[in-house]
Amino acid sequence: MTEYEFQRFWLPRTESRQSVRRLLTDAAEHHGWELARLRLFPDGRRRVTLRRRIIRVRSTL
């Protein structure tokens, strides 16, 4: 079974599309997050949900 941890946050409408793309690319490349959901609201706000896999280390003893 695959387990994920999630990070949810809001981005204001003042953030440009380019800066949002840069933020999400950085999170993916350097921290292992992937975009699970992005919702754009009529007033311009964005609700972002990122996820990354939890890797459990099992003892082999």
TrEMBL record:
Q: What is this protein called?
A: DUF4177 domain-containing protein
Lineage, top-rank taxon, reads Bacteria
